[in-house]
């Protein structure tokens, strides 16, 4: 049995219960306000309990037949994906994105020419297309800048 | 009326109108290719350019770009597994597995042809219904909309093959997430915990991109390989696309059913394109001989949502033009465009400017066909994208997702949420919880709550006894029980 198959529905159950409890007892939402979330939440909680019980009894659902089974995710890829956030916060959308692309591509074996070229195109797209042409008010300066 | 139709047709083929469409189509296609940027962004971007234009020229400019956006959105859904627009998420389910099998061209051809046919079907419905529309739209009040939304929920189980309980959990979580923010009856903000961003609830674009795009980006980063599997790769050619286009006629039942469903959902204000695509997908699955093969690269899984999406757009124009009621947020913006250009849609618009209304329907149909043809020309370079190594493609895609998410509402928190929902998407994908079911539940949850309370207050507790609601219930039951029809007939027949 995969532990994640118990942990995930348990987390969903806990999250829904915590939100409903806070809404009912802390924020004192009226029945009209809490009624619908209560119904939906109770439905989710019951199904989560049912799913946990099924998994514990060894009756978990069949994985769908797939021509391309999922490959395990590497820890490095997760770190790299989430590294995008600090890059954007530190350098802003335009230069943060370009710096991220440069760093990722160089770290993963691409040549300097390709990495720098893609980073330059990214500046052109974010600044030229989004900010100048489409008038998206995207911060060019670092996000921590006052 | 026939004179108005001829006059409208004649106006469309003026050089200025044609030029406006030719200028707008590439803009729509580019906007569609950017993840998170929707048709509403294309309209918002183009409306300022219409100042001073003749009304029909300006409207042709807006409508042509709008129709082209969804074609671009379906391309990224198939080639990269990233929906360009939220309704394109349904196309990911079977389009992306086809791209992984090295058959992106086949899926693209089918998507473009289905879009063109769906778009033309929607426009045909628009032309037929325009003069008689008012009583039809007004017959659909909140009880009917409530049951239509509920019908969408009924198909959640269908979207979760082999893991019905987990599909229902996903759908339930989607409904629960949709209830954050202001409650529709009393205006009290729910579950916002003093965090201003949450007053408007969970946002759709970070949710859709987080659930669908982030897991694909991470998978590409981990493997470093190209999207198309090397062992099953076919040579890149327009032939694949042509075969896909022909598949739309092979599965003509699916194409027509989905187009009709999309048009009906479009005509009703407030239901929306996401519902149309997912319900069309679920219905195609239900009516197919072997529903279990859906999700592994079935071409009907591409045809159904694409036909429904473009038909929905034509349908959404009906209440906009005939009643002045926008069928969607994009239509609300288009309505603004009408006003800027000196026209006021509504019942009076049809008596005064029926020729313009017909011209708009023709522009919509023409725009769909030309956008599909242009995209077909671009399909060959797009197919090459599936052969770029993941270690190069993944970070580019991530940047586009982040920038696209921010651009949707100009909110930095959306970018953080896309990563949070990305984690949820990864867990769901790996534990066989249907992400499509969550998205459908999210879109419909808020509608169900609002229409339920309005129905209860306006029509009393027996609101479900209205004739049209009973017909909707019967149709939904028919759709759900269709795969079991032989078994049910056997039970029914005397021994």
Note down, in words, how this protein is organized.
The complex is a heterodimer of chains A (146) and B (495). Chain A has 146 residues and is mainly alpha-helical. Chain A folds into two domains: 4-56; 76-133, no CATH class. Chain A contains four helices and no strands. In chain A, helix 1 (4-26) runs antiparallel to helix 2. The longest helix of chain A is centred in the middle third of the chain and has 33 residues, at 75-107. In chain A, 32% of the residues are buried. Chain B has helices spanning 2-12, 15-33, 39-46, 55-80, 89-100, 104-129, 133-139, 142-154, 156-159, 164-178, 204-223, 238-250, 252-267, 273-287, 300-323, 329-340, 347-352, 354-385, 390-409, 412-430, 435-459, 467-481, 485-492; strands spanning 181-182, 189-190. Chain B has 23 helices and two strands. Chain B is mostly helical. Chain B has one domain. The model of chain B has no long low-confidence stretch (mean pLDDT 83). Chain B has a two-stranded antiparallel sheet with strand order 1-2. In chain B, a hairpin with a 6-residue loop joins strand 1 (181-182) and strand 2. The chains are: A mainly alpha (146), B mainly alpha (495). At the A-B interface, helix 1, helix 2, helix 3 and helix 4 of A face helix 10, helix 11, helix 19, helix 20 and helix 21 of B.
Features of the shown structure:
heterodimer, A: 146 residues, mainly alpha, 2 domains, 4 helices, flat, B: 495 residues, two-stranded antiparallel sheet, 23 helices, 2 strands, 1% strand
């Amino acid at each position: 049995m995969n532990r994640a198959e118990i942990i995930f529905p348990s987390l969903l159950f806990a999250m829904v219960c915590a939100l409903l409890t806070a809404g009912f007892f802390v924020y004192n939402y009226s029945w009209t306000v809490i009624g619908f979330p209560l119904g939906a939440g109770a439905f989710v909680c019951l199904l989560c309990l049912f799913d946990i019980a099924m998994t514990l009894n060894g009756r978990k659902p069949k994985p769908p037949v797939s021509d391309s089974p999922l490959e395990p995710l590497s820890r490095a890829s997760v770190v790299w994906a989430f590294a995008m956030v600090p890059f954007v916060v530190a350098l802003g959308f335009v230069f943060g994105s370009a710096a991220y692309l440069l760093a990722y591509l160089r770290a993963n074996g691409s040549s300097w020419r390709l990495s720098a070229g893609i980073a330059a195109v990214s500046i052109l797209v974010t600044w030229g297309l989004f900010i100048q042409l489409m008038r998206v008010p995207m911060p060019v300066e670092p996000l921590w800048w006052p | 009326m026939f004179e108005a139709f001829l006059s409208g047709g004649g106006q469309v083929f003026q050089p200025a109108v044609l030029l406006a469409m030719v200028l707008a189509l590439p803009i729509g296609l580019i906007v569609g290719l950017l993840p998170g940027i929707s048709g509403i962004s294309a309209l918002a971007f183009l409306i300022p350019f219409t100042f001073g234009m003749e009304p029909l020229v300006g409207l042709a400019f807006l409508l042509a770009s709008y129709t082209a956006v969804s074609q671009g959105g379906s391309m990224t859904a198939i080639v990269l597994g990233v929906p360009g627009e939220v309704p394109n998420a349904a196309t990911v389910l079977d389009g992306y597995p086809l791209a992984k099998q090295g058959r992106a061209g086949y899926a693209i051809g089918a998507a473009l042809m289905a879009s063109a046919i769906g778009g033309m079907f929607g426009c045909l419905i628009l032309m037929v219904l325009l003069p008689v529309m008012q009583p039809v739209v007004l017959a659909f009040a909140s009880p009917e909309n409530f049951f239509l939304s509920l019908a969408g929920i009924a198909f959640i189980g269908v979207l979760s093959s082999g893991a019905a309980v987990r599909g229902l959990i996903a759908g339930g979580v989607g409904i629960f997430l949709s209830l954050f923010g202001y409650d529709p009856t009393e205006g009290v903000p729910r579950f916002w915990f003093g965090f201003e961003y949450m007053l408007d609830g969970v946002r759709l674009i970070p949710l859709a991109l987080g659930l669908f795009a982030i897991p694909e980006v991470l998978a590409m980063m981990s493997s470093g390989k190209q999207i198309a599997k090397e062992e099953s790769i076919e040579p890149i050619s327009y032939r694949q696309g042509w075969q896909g286009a022909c598949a739309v006629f092979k599965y003509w039942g699916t194409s027509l059913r989905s187009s009709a469903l999309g048009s009906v959902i479009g005509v009703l204000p407030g239901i929306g394109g996401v519902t149309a695509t997912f319900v069309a997908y679920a219905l195609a699955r239900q009516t197919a001989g072997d529903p279990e093969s859906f999700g592994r690269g079935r071409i009907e899984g591409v045809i159904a949502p694409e036909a429904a999406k473009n038909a929905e757009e034509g349908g959404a124009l009906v209440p906009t033009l005939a009643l002045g009621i926008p069928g969607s947020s994009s239509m609300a913006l288009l309505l603004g465009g009408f006003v800027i250009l000196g026209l006021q849609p509504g019942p009076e618009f049809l008596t005064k400017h029926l020729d313009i209304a017909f011209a708009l329907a023709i522009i919509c149909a023409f725009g769909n066909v030309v956008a599909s043809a242009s995209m077909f020309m671009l399909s060959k370079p797009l197919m090459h994208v599936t052969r770029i190594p993941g270690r190069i493609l993944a970070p580019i895609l991530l940047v586009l997702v982040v920038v696209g998410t921010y651009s949707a509402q100009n909110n930095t928190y959306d970018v953080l949420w896309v990563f949070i929902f990305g984690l949820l998407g990864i867990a769901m994908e790996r534990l066989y919880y249907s992400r499509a079911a969550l998205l459908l539940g999210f879109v419909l949850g808020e509608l169900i709550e609002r229409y339920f309370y309005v129905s209860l207050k306006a029509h009393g507790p027996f609101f479900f006894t209205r004739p049209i609601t009973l017909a909707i219930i019967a149709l939904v039951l028919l759709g759900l029980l269709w795969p079991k029809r032989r078994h049910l007939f056997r039970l029914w027949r005397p021994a």
